[in-house]
Amino acid sequence: MTDAPRQDRVLIFDTTLRDGEQSPGATMTHEEKLEIAAMLDEMGVDIIEAGFPIASEGDFRAVSEIAKNAVNARICGLARANPTDIDRAWEAVKHARQNRIHTFIGTSPLHRAIPGLSQDEMADLIHQTVSHARNLCEDVQWSPMDATRTEWDYLKRVVEIAIKAGATTINIPDTVGYTAPEESADLIRRLIAEVPGGEDVIFATHCHNDLGMATANALAAVAGGARQIECTINGLGERAGNTALEEVVMALKVRGDIMPWTTGVDTRKIMAISRRVATVSGFPVQFNKAIVGKNAFAHESGIHQDGMLKNRENFEIMRPEDVGLAASSLPLGKHSGRAALRDKLGNLGFEVGDNQLKDVFVRFKELADRKKEVFDEDIIALVRAGEEDSADALKLVSMKVVCGTGGPAEATVEMEIDGKDVSATAEGDGPVDATFKAVRALHPNEAHLQLYQVHAVTEGTDAQATVSVRLEEDGVIATGTSADTDTVVASARAYIHALNRLMVRRAKAGPGADKREINWKDAS
Ligand code: KIV
Ligand code: ZN
């Protein structure tokens, strides 16, 4: 990482594991967080906000371990404006070769009302807490939450206080996605020019996408002088999400002519991490999402295909290879061997170890027996699908479903539960409902189904379906995924996968250990 960025270098601060993971339903397991952090580190992200250490034992453990493992990136932990939070954040990030404490408080009139502080009381608190953080760590980021709805004079005053107290980065959050590009640029420009000491710190931009302007607002802030963009993979985040990393990074790369700022991100690693984040968060990427959507590089209409064949620049402003999409996508078939599969996985951006390759190969062969051509999307679904782990307590052995017009569907499900074979039959409102009821008869649970989603992976009636199931029980959330040419089988597997993960998560959590008991917006 470049510690003192040149004027043309923009730091990328990724908050997928904090702001992204905080969005309801996007919780990741400990191992998944470590894996995503390693991918971010390897792709050249400058700062990784790894979590909110005070929020739970699980968050603390994840941030500490990410800090120990990081090779290039600076590791940051979030803290509210109080010494306990700040100490906890420091305890977690202090293991990193390069670390940062990020402390924040809501400064707008609405947010000041939450802790019920006057302007002067809050100003004092900002001075105390930033000084406290700076005594622990030489790299301190401070954020006036809801900055874009904070009175200008007060914003200027508190930014100056934070700089004097030792903040090295001042982040200006558009917490509710309220600002617009010109205003975003202007705000940063004026802060740099008018706040004493403003020239000596890095200004960061942190935009939410409520009005669909997060990317435009972040880039405008850079034009105004910001030199750090806060963002998440796939734009993951609360409500409409955060600025998408892939969008700002590619915009700067493609339009360097009018936006002459560079990042340290290896853009060829974008697709792999996008897919991984989609899988582990259970938030699929919309098909027409910029840069990483399934259709972002697809040219279906006759005119477009004709134009592409004549000269790809007719309809393509960036090359698929630049974001890590395989240039060729010849399908595999049942005669393809392990080497061809490994090669394909590599082209698709998956680095698999020997064990995972063995597992994916078995499932690939099963699929190739049922499906003439196995496309890239099928392979991606195979890797993504949360398959049964040998340690799983619940396993699907077999199932049979009878459904049709004029009556309820009936599902008979055979499962192995803690090593014992059991089976149950249940009726339901359609085949999926009947199947889930049969699973519940075998493994009674109170888990509430938060999300059930089906996507066809490719075209045609023999296409695989990927199914995501999100369950919630006592505040603990788990997502399961699976893929199969039979949608009902994929649904059963995804449901069982989610139940297994829920059990593991609840067991690890103990009473509340992995649960976020605190209100993160309660800033003091
Ligand atoms: O959106 C926001 O204001 C935040 C802060 C904690 C920086 O995420
Ligand atoms: Zn945010």
Chain-wise SSE layout:
Layout: E1 11-14, H1 16-20, H2 30-43, E2 47-51, H3 57-69, E3 74-80, H4 83-93, E4 99-106, H5 109-112, H6 119-136, E5 140-145, H7 152-165, E6 169-174, H8 181-194, E7 202-207, H9 214-223, E8 228-231, H10 245-254, H11 270-281, H12 302-310, H13 338-347, H14 354-370, H15 376-384, E9 394-402, E10 409-417, E11 420-428, H16 431-442, E12 448-456, E13 465-473, E14 476-484, H17 487-509
Helix pairs in contact: 2-3, 2-11, 3-4, 4-6, 6-7, 8-9, 16-17
The protein binds 3-methyl-2-oxobutanoic acid and zinc ion.
The site of 3-methyl-2-oxobutanoic acid has 9 residues, from β5 and β6.
Rg over CA atoms, rounded to whole Å, is 25 Å
Task: Provide the domain count.
Answer: 4
Distance between the termini: 32 Å
Mean pLDDT figure:
90
Share in β-strands:
15-25%
What sort of overall outline do the alpha carbons produce when their principal axes are compared?
Answer: globular
Describe the model.
The structure is a single chain. The protein is α/β, with parallel strands linked by helices and 524 residues long. The protein has 4 domains: 11-281, Aldolase class I (TIM Barrel), CATH 3.20.20.70; 295-322, no CATH class; 326-385; 394-509, 2-Layer Sandwich (Double Stranded RNA Binding Domain). Helices cover 39% and strands 19% of the residues. It has 17 helices and 14 strands. It has an 8-stranded parallel β-barrel, surrounded by 7 helices. It has a 3-stranded antiparallel β-sheet with strand order 9-10-11. Strands 12-13-14 form a 3-stranded antiparallel β-sheet. The longest helix has 23 residues, at 487-509. The two termini are 32 Å apart. Bound molecules: 3-methyl-2-oxobutanoic acid and zinc ion. The site of 3-methyl-2-oxobutanoic acid has 9 residues, from strand 5 and strand 6.
